[in-house]
């Protein structure tokens, strides 16, 4: 998948590169996601953000307009993302919910989400969609929506 990751800190770069293993086309940006940095999403399918990025309705609409279909947040929380507007726009949202909160662990969870989406599968417990996935036409490996 082609993805752009915003708000990347120096200590995260190596972990993401190693977890990715040159599978996905990742662009790493140190700037936060906002209207002025939106141009980095051109040609991408996925946006990877941190909890410092605020994805309100207007940013989500802009992301959808440029073809973004999926968002991964490198955080447990998703209160920085308007999940209801994302659902209205049929944008899938995932977080990194596992106990390993090290940069390596978060990077591995992020890439795991990309790998599953790339195979047309649900991201399981990382799914933060507020609608039933059947309405979003997501292929579930286990046949149910896990939150």
From TrEMBL:
It comes from the Bacteria. Gene3D superfamilies: NAD(P)-binding Rossmann-like Domain. Keywords: NAD. Residues 22-100 form the D-isomer specific 2-hydroxyacid dehydrogenase catalytic domain. PANTHER family: 2-HYDROXYACID DEHYDROGENASE HOMOLOG 1-RELATED. This is D-isomer specific 2-hydroxyacid dehydrogenase catalytic domain-containing protein. It comes from Sphingobacterium griseoflavum.
